[in-house]
Structure formats: structure tokens, C-alpha cells
Write a structure and sequence with these properties.
The structure is a homodimer. Chain A is mainly beta and about 120 residues long. Chain A has strands at about 1-5, 10-15, 20-30, 35-55, 60-65, 65-70, 75-80, 85, 95, 105-110. Chain A has one domain (about 5-105): Sandwich (Jelly Rolls), CATH 2.60.120.10. The interface between A and B is large, with 37 and 37 residues.
């Protein structure tokens, strides 16, 4: 068993091009010896955004706090605490904080192909 | 993309033998066409418990609210909101609510062998 707390995990800047006010903490990943899939916590400040992008890995997300929206090429879908989202492989998507408080969500991914 | 909210998902009783006051909601799973791993929300009432058990699937957990403890054959480890836990395959474990409010945690598992 491994246990940790989010306050112990470094927050890295989200690298997707054009991202603003978005950080990511890798809670459980390759460095922990975790197989199959990884768990991250994403934080987006009010006004922050992760613009449209795509990738091979899937997302399974759970909104822990705050309000935001999933961005798609043809519009956006609002979400709030308690929403969960499945984003399939290679589907174009982004996220923005639409509220006045920090947006935080759990975002799990399958193991990236280059790490398999 | 699929989006849902926890309030729309049936809460099933946790079946592990001796469990009390524990419910599980399958947020993203086989019925949603989700590959690789599944996402559940587990809720344990004050005084509730999921006794020691083991299984082949792994757990990656994130404590959303409340206070509790991971049970092991030789003791227990407390946790609270913001803790994350990796439980390897076939490691004996359980959970109990040690606080006065509802305990809720995200619990992701790899796809059970019988569903692969």
C-alpha cells in the first residue's frame, strides 16, 4: 500500500499549448510503481484555461470542487462538483474554469503507449 | 465524450462480507464502453465499515470528503480529504469511517480479469 496527500505532491504547470492558470499533480504514476492507469489532480484558477488539444490516452475525470466547462470544437459543456466525464482516445477537448473559485478535478489516464 | 453526475447514478450496497453502511456508485464502467479501468464513488456512513478482504484488481483512491482509515491485518492507517491511496493486487485491506460525517472517496480499478 502507498498513501500520500495532495499537499506533499509538486504542482507542475500544464504544458498544453496556450494553457493559463492550470496546474497538475501526479498523485499515482509510473514513479510509484503503479500499473495500468495513473491518477492526477488538475487545478485551474478562476479565468484559467487548458485550450483544445488531443492525445491517445483516455481521461476519466471527477470534479472535486468548483465550476467549469469541457471545451469541444463545436461548443462547450458546463460541469460542477460531482460531475464525472469520460473522454475517449484522440477526441479533441479542453477545459476552462467558469467560476470564481479554484476548479479541481481528478483526471485518470491509461498508461501512455511510450511507457508500456 | 460522456458526462454524468453522481446524483444520477444508483447507489448499490457494498457486498464485501460484513460491510455496514457502505454504498458504491459505478460512475464509469463496462456499461459505458469505458476501456482499461473503471471509476466508482464509495460512500461510508459514520460508523460504517468495509471489513478486510482482498481481490485481484488494484485500487487507486482519492478521498473526496470525510475521515476514515485503511484497515490492514496488522493495524490501520488514518486518512482524510486530499489523501490518495494505491492498493496493489491481492493485498488484504478494508476501510472504515472514523468521523462524524459521510466519508466519500473515488476508487478506480483496472478491468476485472473476467471482463477482459
Amino acid at each position: 500500500m502507498k498513501i500520500g496527500h495532495v499537499t506533499e505532491v509538486e504542482k507542475e504547470t500544464v504544458q498544453a499549448q496556450g494553457s493559463q492558470g492550470a496546474g497538475i499533480q501526479w498523485l499515482l504514476s509510473k514513479r510509484d510503481g503503479v500499473p495500468d492507469f495513473y491518477m492526477r489532480l488538475v487545478s485551474v484558477e478562476p479565468g484559467g484555461i487548458i485550450p483544445l488539444h488531443k492525445h491517445e490516452v483516455i481521461h476519466e475525470m471527477f470534479i472535486v470542487k468548483g465550476k467549469g466547462a469541457v471545451l469541444r470544437p463545436d461548443g462547450e459543456t458546463p460541469f460542477e462538483e460531482g460531475n464525472f466525464i469520460y473522454m475517449p482516445s484522440n477526441e479533441v477537448h479542453g477545459t476552462r474554469n467558469t467560476g470564481n473559485e479554484l476548479l479541481q478535478f481528478i483526471c485518470c489516464i491509461n498508461v501512455p503507449p511510450q511507457q508500456q
